[in-house]
Design a protein that fits this description.
It is a single chain. This protein is α/β, with parallel strands linked by helices. It has helices spanning 10-18, 20-27, 38-54, 68-82, 94-116, 175-193, 218-236, 271-288, and strands at residues 6-9, 121-135, 141-157, 160-166, 199-203, 211-213. The protein is 44% helix and 18% strand. Strands 1, 2, 3, 4, 5 and 6 form a six-stranded mixed beta sheet that branches. Helix 3 runs parallel beside helix 5 (94-116).
Length: 289
Amino acid sequence: MTYPPIAISWSSLRTHEECRQKAKLVRERKGNPSQNIRNFFHGNVVDRVMREWLDGDPPVPGTMASFVARVMEEEEQRALDRKSGIVKWRDANDREEVFSFCQQLVVKLEPILERLILPYDYDMGMRFKVPMSIPDPDGGKSNILLTGEMDLLVRQAPDRWAVWDLKATANNDYWRKTVAQLTFYDIAVRGMFGKFPVEAGLIQPMCDQQVLPVSISSQDRVDLMSRIVLMAHDMWLDFAPITDNGSSCSYCHVRHACERYKPTSPNRVSFVSVAKRSREVANEHRRES
């Protein structure tokens, strides 16, 4: 049989590998509209600031920092309007600290963009859907779509491409968690243009190494394709077990819809029942005394 086409993005792949049940619920749009998006809010802000600045005709040097205050307000409101989450500030100073972080980042970002991006043709926030045929669970071939959005795709020359991804972090080791994302984009570029990128890397202005070039090998591509095929098979076979590692469950934005926490689940702890029993025990003690 031929299986129906499915879409796989880098973020959905990471979520799937974290917990297949979570990935399924995310695909079914079971997310909590009141989830806290504070941890990645600053990334959304600087990404949009960069795109607006690059969209200038031409970009005006020294102006990117002036976009931050307006974009922060608009991004907060946009999340509410789309019901994609709310920003819960950690304390009275948190918003100002995020504002300062974003301003410092974009000031450092401008000269990097002037060197790596502006001399060439480029596209920012480029959405893609790349069809691909892969082995299916029956040993035949079925189609998937690699989907996503690249921060920066640069054409340095005809048939010569570069991919750059902006990271709003000051953690010098953060790249280890996301470097395979560039391999995902590398494969997508090959599907779109018939050529792998000649250059790829992370732009991380707040880290010690502000530009981190990444070398992508044939083995990296094979390893990532293996992960993509495994995810596709799980989706085609509707295999969505709950992860054994529940350490991140308390932060999961689809926890309310998860089988583990439904009333019929043997793994669920009913805090209402516990509280009720505690009151009953307390009343019994009072009567006895």
